[in-house]
Amino acid sequence: MFMILLFINAFTTIRPAQVNKKTTYNTTLIRYTTKLLDTILLNQDKKLRPQSDDGSPLVVEIDILIRSMGPISEQNMEFSLDCYFRQKWLDKRLAFNQAYSSKPEIPLASKMLKDIWDLSVLKVYFKLQRQQGYYVLQIYTPCTLLVVMSWVSFWINKEASPARVALGIMTVLSMSTLGFGLRTDLPKVSHHTALDIYILSCFGFVFCAMIEYAVINYAQIVYIRKQIHDLQGLDSNAAVSIFSGTRNIVCLFRLFGNRGPRDARDIA
């Protein structure tokens, strides 16, 4: 029991000495550090930029260290970046003059040794570029195929109205959904882009192919009305013999029988 009490007494006697030594070291370090900073910042005004001796502009060196690059939003043209941004310039007002130092040595903690080394910096430049393959497969190729498909109506008989109208409407709606639907995922800019011009051009070709059938159909109706007007005064058999090569005229007179072309002018 006596040995245990003696050990506890010795421990309590040595520990305050160690604490006081560490506290004295920290107090001395803080005192000299404060004195050093007060001496350096004595003539420095942070509101004024540093000036050189010859009056030349201040040279500021800037470097950026990128740690990571987050998700990129093409629609909002934004991206996240985690980096170190550092600026470095020379301010002679902060130069330390040894004449002001009353102590030749400044004690530092041992952990500061690992922070003193010759720094080697690796600079990396990132060049962001869109992948062309995505836009070729998702936009350019489908739009081109839709335009080519709309041209198929040129080889369909002009009398096949359901087929030509259905094909034209389908290509126009598909072009609107595909071209302008995918455009919403791209950045919203105030100027037109090459993709906008291409989509509008494809839409124009598809729409013109639809209008082409309407123009031909109207021209055919005008032609039939003119032929009916020219055949007035002839009997039905003569008209059929003269224009036997025109299927529309033949069908027209077969529809009205022997009543004559004068009766058919009501539909003109």
UniProtKB/TrEMBL annotation:
Topology in membrane: Multi-pass membrane protein
Keywords of this entry: Cell membrane, Ion channel, Ion transport, Membrane, Signal, Transmembrane, Transmembrane helix, Transport
Keyword Cell membrane among record annotations: yes
UniProt entry tagged with the keyword Signal: yes
Domain of life, source organism: Eukaryota
GO molecular function terms attached to this record: extracellular ligand-gated monoatomic ion channel activity; transmembrane signaling receptor activity
Every Neurotransmitter-gated ion-channel transmembrane domain range: 139-219
Residues of the signal peptide: 1-16
GO CC, one annotated term: plasma membrane
Subcellular location: Cell membrane; Membrane
Chief place where the protein resides: membrane
Chain ranges of the Neurotransmitter-gated ion-channel ligand-binding domain: 34-117
Pfam families according to UniProt: Neur_chan_LBD, Neur_chan_memb
Ranges that cross the membrane: 134-156, 163-182, 197-216
PANTHER family to which the protein is assigned, alphabetical: NEUROTRANSMITTER GATED ION CHANNEL (PTHR18945)
Protein name, entry field: Neurotransmitter-gated ion-channel transmembrane domain-containing protein
Organism per entry: Diploscapter pachys
